[in-house]
Design brief:
The chain has 138 residues and is mainly beta. The protein has a single domain, classed as Jelly Rolls (Sandwich). 7% of the residues lie in helices and 40% in strands. It has 1 helix and 9 strands. It has a 6-stranded antiparallel sheet with strand order 1-2-3-9-4-7, with no helix packed on it. Strands 6-5-8 form a 3-stranded antiparallel sheet, with no helix packed on it. A hairpin with a 4-residue loop joins strand 2 and strand 3.
């Protein structure tokens, strides 16, 4: 990581990396959101939790029981989405591109704007997929 002074580390934590413009008027807050406080919803058999869903970040998780599948997400016309498999093995089906990608634990995929996609759990245990969307599109 290199040798950094305490002042450099604190400045980075407060204002962001030095190569990015900093704004001392912006207050940085650490926000803890517990699982019980997330917004729960279903997309087919996919149990989704939205932890953060505002103008700055969209971040959540999806759980699928063995052999189950979520609904087809139509994609996001102006946003990318990232899937990271934290547990299990899933097939990610991309409708427009006609692709099927097998994602194992610790694999990630970047989904381009407008690409419909669907998760299918092909493992013998519950699958957990972490997802985020950017830039935020409402």
């Amino acid at each position: 990581m290199g040798n950094y002074t305490t002042a450099q580390v604190l400045r980075t934590l407060k204002y962001g990396p030095p190569d990015l413009p900093s704004n001392p008027e912006l207050e940085q807050k650490i926000v803890l959101l517990r699982k019980r406080d997330s917004r729960n919803f279903l997309e087919g058999d996919e149990h989704c939790r939205a932890y953060f869903d505002d103008k700055k970040v969209i971040f959540g998780t999806s759980k699928l029981a063995p052999g189950k599948r979520g609904d087809v997400d139509p994609g996001h016309p102006n946003s990318y989405e990232v899937f990271y498999v934290a547990k299990g093995t899933v097939i990610c089906r991309f409708e427009k591109s006609k692709l099927f990608m097998e994602l194992e634990e610790e694999d990630a995929v970047l989904i381009p704007p407008g690409e419909p996609h669907q998760l299918i759990n092909v493992s013998e245990k519950e699958a957990l997929v972490v997802w985020s969307q950017f830039p935020v599109q409402k």
